[in-house]
Amino acid sequence: MAEQGARQMLPEVQTYIQSVEAATAAQSAAAVAADQKYPERYGYGENSRSQASAYSEEIRKVYDTGAETLEAAWNALKTSGDPLVKWIAENCGEYRAEARCILAALPATVDELDDLAEANDWCRVWGSFRQQAIDAGVMPGITPPSPARKAVFERIDQESCCRMEAGARRRIGEALDALIKEAMTTEASAAEAKAPQVPA
Fold first, then answer.
1. Predicted structure pTM score
2. What is the dihedral of CA 120, 139, 134, 125, to 10 degrees?
3. First-to-last CA distance in the chain?
4. 3-state secondary structure of 78
5. What is the pLDDT of residues 109-118, one digit of tens each?
6. How far apart are CA 158 and CA 148, in angstroms?
7. Are 152 and 175 in contact (CB under 8 A)?
8. Which of 5-9, 153-157, 159-163 has the lowest mean pLDDT?
9. Distance between CA atoms of 113 and 107, rounded to whole angstroms?
10. I need a labelling partner for 99 at 20 to 30 A (CA). Which of 10, 21, 76, 144 fits?
């Protein structure tokens, strides 16, 4: 990834992160205020029960408001003009903490995102989402696999005892690329050899 000072975070991602930080800070402040507002809630008697009930209701509202704000901020990413950001918002809602790290790193190459995933020990989950993003054609710098290539991988998965991991899929993909290149080179050489020779 580019150095933090040189890399410009995507505007919609910056807005999202600022919204999350503001909502988290507001939620914490409101929780502290509620704690101070009902100091007798742990005691006995009617007053303590009343304070405990009021405190619980206030905290519930605090967290409900915070959750609504965070959800709105996340949903706003679904309108992003960046294909990967939009795809992450639509498909990675269960992993928002990890997604936030990925989003904050963008723009980045696939290799840089792989390094980030490895550094954070996300390899198993990242491998699955990585391939889904590639298949969807939203991973930067990578052409989505053709139907024929997808069929090859699906057949390998069907014939194997378990699905291939991301590393194996990538290595086989590279081998397929080399095979296609060799076939195209051979075909071009054969066509050239068959072409009529023009006298000098």
1. 0.70
2. 20
3. 54
4. helix
5. 988 998 998 8
6. 15
7. no
8. 5-9
9. 10
10. 144
